[in-house]
Specification:
This protein is α+β, with helices and mostly antiparallel strands and about 130 residues long. The protein has a single domain, classed as RutC-like (60s Ribosomal Protein L30, Chain: A, 2-Layer Sandwich). A four-stranded mixed β-sheet has the order 3-6-4-5. A two-stranded antiparallel sheet has the order 1-2. It starts with a strand and ends with a strand.
Length: about 130
């Protein structure tokens, strides 16, 4: 079972995301709670944005794998950041980190700047939805 990216020509080329992901019928939905850059003891890992982003995304994928899925099963990610400018400044390092974790799979994604996250010191939080076979 695989997801199909939906990118209408009228929206221009999607860069690093898909405008939509079509899931085949019969898949199981996995809703992934917002993850931060925690280790197994709930200690925040890394002070720099790109490092926190990579750990956070690895935590999202850990939930997917624990449910029997793969990174390619992720249909949607919502990325919450406390500083959009920090995200933009670190975009190259974030892209490298993303590809290390997700490869060349680009689900539907949104980026939202928020005033603060629940975990003190967290710079990024990611939640998602996966469609598992």
């Amino acid at each position: 079972m695989s997801l199909t990216p939906i990118n209408p020509e009228s929206l221009g080329a999607a860069k690093g995301y898909s405008n939509g992901m079509l899931a085949p019928a019969g898949g199981r939905l996995l809703f992934i709670a917002g993850q931060v850059a925690w280790d197994e003891w709930h200690h925040l890992v890394g002070a720099d944005f790109a490092g926190q982003f990579e750990t956070t995304l690895r935590n999202v994928v850990a939930v997917v794998r624990a449910a029997g899925g793969r990174p390619e099963d992720v249909a949607r990610l919502t990325i919450f950041v406390v500083d959009k400018q920090e995200y933009e400044r670190d975009l190259r390092a974030i892209g490298d980190a993303y590809r290390r974790v997700m490869g060349k799979h680009f689900p539907a994604m949104s980026l939202v700047e928020v005033k603060a996250l629940l975990e003190p010191g967290a710079r990024v939080e990611i939640e998602g939805t996966a469609v598992l076979p």
